[in-house]
Amino acid sequence: MDNELEITQTAQGLSLRLRVSPKASRDALRGVHAGALKVHVTEPPERGKANDGVVRLLAEVLGLPARDITITAGHASHDKRVLVCGFPGGPAELKRALLAGR
Fold first, then answer.
1. Fewest CB atoms within 10 A around its CB: which of 13, 30, 38, 87?
2. CB neighbours of 51 closer than 8 A, spacing ≥ 6?
3. Nearest alpha carbon to residue 70 among 30, 7, 12, 29
4. Of the candidates 14, 80, 94, 95, which has an alpha carbon nearest to the alpha carbon of residue 50?
């Protein structure tokens, strides 16, 4: 088990994996498991509500508009990949910001 958050720099921005738990008691970032950021959201996994909650939470933690966070894979899965655009730093700064937002 690798507890190091994996973040990749792409031409479009920074990409990372998430492990999402919908219908949680509260919205929270819960650390790292197997290279993915564990994200808990209160929204249910229906009609994209949990995905919207994930985008909203990440945008809030990072101080970015929601339009700068895009789910690129795993729309109907607990395991997702997101792209963060417009973040004023590289992978190390993004990792610090996300883990501080726990």
1. 30
2. 71, 75, 80
3. 12
4. 80
Which neighbouring-strand residues pair with 82? Answer: 16, 71
Domains of the chain in sequence order: 7-100 (3.30.1200.10)
Query: pTM value?
Result: 0.94
- Take residue 53 and report the two structure tokens written for it: 């909650």
Distance CA 96, CA 84 (A): 14
Listed in order, strand segments (DSSP E) in the chain are 7-9, 14-21, 28-33, 36-40, 69-73, 79-84
